[in-house]
Design goal:
136 residues, five-stranded mixed β-sheet, elongated
Length: 136
């Protein structure tokens, strides 16, 4: 399994296991799908980027992953509440998983937008993590 897929799996597991998140978004609507329109409300696991780390043994990477938050609402308060719940859920330490150690996992930015359809709010939560492959 790649480091970015391991992180994606760990993030989804954390979000669906966090009551404050699932109180706002059903667990079945936290998914990796190329779906438009997205279910309302939903958290769609989006784009990612892997950047080579600094270790000489090449076992670390800086990963960047976006989470897209969607909700039909006239304003953006709902997506802001969901993004806040995501941030709180990800502030707790991640356990080693699938051969990777997740260090420095954090929400690095949150953006809130109004969809051109005039009915949907959209949030983009950017998550960054330093991921190290665990030595066999």
């Amino acid at each position: 399994m790649s480091a970015d897929l391991a992180l994606q799996k760990a993030l989804r597991a954390r979000l669906v296991a966090t009551g404050a998140v699932t109180a706002l978004v059903p667990a079945a609507s936290i998914l990796d799908a190329n779906q438009r329109p997205a279910p309302s409300p939903s958290i769609i696991i989006g784009e990612g980027q892997a950047i080579e780390g600094d270790r000489l043994d090449r076992r670390d990477q800086r990963l960047v992953l976006t989470l897209h938050v969607w909700k039909k609402e006239p304003g953006i308060t709902g997506v802001k509440a969901i993004a806040g719940a995501i941030r709180a859920a990800l502030s707790l330490k991640f356990e080693e998983n699938d051969g990777y150690h997740f260090a420095d996992c954090r929400v690095s930015s949150m953006r809130f937008l109004r969809d051109p359809d005039g009915e949907t709010a959209h949030g983009v939560v950017t998550v960054e993590a330093l991921v190290c492959e665990v030595a066999p």
